[in-house]
């Protein structure tokens, strides 16, 4: 029989996961924002797999400025939603979208060159793992337990705190 309500320790574990992923996204966005030489152009142009033409198009001189801006904006916003515990489900969805785009640009498919990656992967890489973790955060939001969401919906915290 499955317990329908999560215990405090389970919520705490998901909150730790949310905060760590939030920090990762915010840091990645901030480091790119404050580096005037950063661009996603090389990443886009080195894409592989069936989506390579799409990423080559996104890496063109006419689009790369917009791509860079949107990438940084989404990274920072996802990081803030997860760290602050507000609109975390939306942040999780946007984060999943970004991670899947990163995965599609450089998929860990057999037979593809994985130059520039941090290791040698077979189908599953860190982007898919982090996307799966964000899916858990999407399914089990914790902002009403720990975050600014608690201030917006205080009635929800009573049922969580009693478990």
Describe this structure in words.
This protein has one domain. The chain has helices at 8-33, 41-45, 52-58, 64-84, 88-105, 126-139, 149-152, 155-161. The model is unreliable at 156-163 (pLDDT under 50). It starts with 7 loop residues before the first helix and ends with a helix. With 163 residues, it is mostly helical. It contains 8 helices and no strands.
The overall pLDDT, averaged over residues, is 85
Q: What is the SS-derived class?
A: mainly alpha
Radius of gyration: 18 Å
User: What oligomeric state best describes the polypeptide chains here?
Assistant: single chain
Overall structural domain count: 1
Net shape: globular
Helix content: 55-70%
pLDDT < 50 stretches: 156-163
> With helices defined by DSSP (H or I, 4 residues minimum), what is the helix count?
8
Terminal-residue CA separation: 17 Å
Main beta sheet: strand number and arrangement?
none
Sheet-strand content, in percent, reads under 5%
Overall strand count: 0
Order of helices and strands: HHHHHHHH
